[in-house]
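User: what does the whole thing look like in 3D?
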Amino acid sequence: MNQRERARLVVTCPDCAVRKAIDDVNEAVAFHRRHRAITGHDVEWERAELEGASIPGEDLRSVIAELEARVEGGVPLGLVTVAMGERGMTIGETLDAVRELRMEGKLYEPRDDHLRVT
Amino acid sequence: MTRWNDGTDATASVSPDITDETNALPAKYFTDPAVHEMEQETVFSRYWVYAGHENAIREPGDYFTRTVGDRQVIVVRDKDRGMRAFYNVCAHRGSKMVDDTPMTDPGNANGIRCPYHLWTYELDGDLRSTPRSFEEAGMNPDLEDEDVPRLDPEENGLREVHLDSIGPLLFVNLDDDPMSLAEQAGTLKEELESFPLEDYELARRYVSEVECNWKTFSGNYSECDHCQANHQDWIEGISLSESELVVDDHYWVLHYTHDEGVEAAESLIEGEARFYYFWPNFTLNMYGNADGYGTYIIDPIDEGRFQLIADYYFKDAELSDEEKEFVQLSRKLQEEDFELVERQYEGLKSDALAQAQLGPNEHTVHRLHLLAQEAYDA
Ligand code: FES
Ligand SMILES: [Fe+2]
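Assistant: Here's the predicted 3D structure for the full assembly of 496 residues, as structure tokens:
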């Protein structure tokens, strides 16, 4: 098993057949942004083994509210993409949905790429 | 000679002639964040950098964006079907105007409109129109409407970026007064333009992010001494001993002969693979065993990461099964190389090595290192 396979966090672009192991959930978001800028493709989670049970909640906002109780200083955007990935959304789809909620005033960013519900 | 980081040895310059001395570019130029910063100016803002392929934007108003370092340009086909490039920055108050638009998914617009206050520009960059709030002084009690100065379309237009081409390959230069592309390309221009590159369509783009400095990958691309040990599938059917390396001022070529090529009638080139490296970060890959070609853009993200943008061009954007298989083999080759360069980079990052040495047949890599040193010193 090489280092890439051992990684706990792996994102992939199915169109490019590219996989990338990362250390931090928000790095997936950065990767997605770079990748989308060059290809227009949407990146998704291939593997995200995180500590703790899976997150309850139906819609995006309640998922973020759930996560908020578990982390301090705002929920990393990448973590939200993991939770929504379990619900079948690509990273791009989650980012678009997050943006929409922010524009509606239902979320805010206490710091860059970290979310809280209002 | 090799220079270890043992606290005694300083590094030397890249050897002027690799046949009698073997100094590589000192290791810190691969690992130092300050060097990455410096390269934005000394390399990527001074030389001609590949922007994309003309075939992706055939109609007036078609455009894509290309980001070089932290600067983004819009490459657009204007009303006269000419190609132009502009900074993606509004002349009003500096807003980024169009969204990131990859060449694989180009946009079309009959003018460039800034979403902030709706200043709108012609495809030749001239200011076309501004909303009424910029033409009347309704809110300003000290100014009469007729005293509001008219904005000259040209003086208030977009900032144009130098753009030139080799066949359908578009290059931009962010320098105010660059050397010509023809000068940088030398004989490469004529050589590439002898191929009907414009008859081929972009069929695939694969983008990978790799954990090493961009020059590490560039060096790996430039030699095939590692092929025997690391690309078993590829070297099958290739006569490595008949290979030839040609080095010019800003480019070098690796020639390989396949035991069997593709039919000459439909092929760009039969039986002979040619891998062109064009400083600073562009390659053109002629396969000789497939009727198509590829390009690589080797874009740094930071000192320790780059993205490889691999584009594949074939007669038809719809690939045959054979072509699909070919592209997959090429991807496999990339993965093999990524392993090699990431491993090399891990070693470099450990700081044990102050300066590597090059082999006598690595004169292509030597040229790369020399060009880097030259750019830093200029
Ligand atoms: S900044 Fe572009 S219109 Fe104001
Ligand atoms: Fe992709």
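In plain terms: The longest strand of chain A covers residues 9-13. Residues A 13, 15-16, 35, 39, 41; B 207 surround fe (ii) ion (ligand 2) (CB under 6 Å).
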